[in-house]
Design brief:
The structure is a single chain. By secondary structure, the protein is mostly helical. 41% of the residues lie in helices and 6% in strands.
Length: 71
Amino acid sequence: PDPTPPDWFGSMDRNTDRRVTRAEFVGTDEAFRAIDADLDGAITPAEARTADAWFRQQITGEPVTPRASPA
């Protein structure tokens, strides 16, 4: 199963299919392409978690490990 996504993912996933398409994404095309690692046209929970950890690291300057999924 997909890991638990960050809060922003749930806010953007308007149809609750656990995928954020470009139409649902509120950021720029460039940001969408950067987060959509496999370039399939949708951001998955795993891609969102990876991006969230990277952005947090950029802000804090400290390495951030994505949270583990709840058991």
